[in-house]
Amino acid sequence: MRHEKLSSLDPLVGEWVMHRVYRATLRDRAWTIWGQAGPEFYQRFTATFSPDGSAIDGAWERSGDRAAWEHDFAVSYAKVG
Predict the structure, then answer these.
(1) Domain count for the chain
(2) Which residue stretches of the chain have pLDDT < 70?
(3) Is there a domain that residue 10 lies in?
(4) Cα angle for residues 14, 16, 20 (degrees, 5° grid)
């Protein structure tokens, strides 16, 4: 038997394509994409569905202490089919 609260996740069912917007710099004609890693690295994600449910637009934020958060990168998902 399926729990009734799971029906709120129905919009996520299906196949999705992700488009990441990279934060990058161009210096000395070289394209650099920055990444973060380490033991004191935290991320969180917030997003919203489009009115018709066919897209999700959101952004990742990062923090070194889980108190001060800053924008890391944006991401969009488009539902396939």
Answers:
(1) 1
(2) 20-38
(3) no
(4) 160
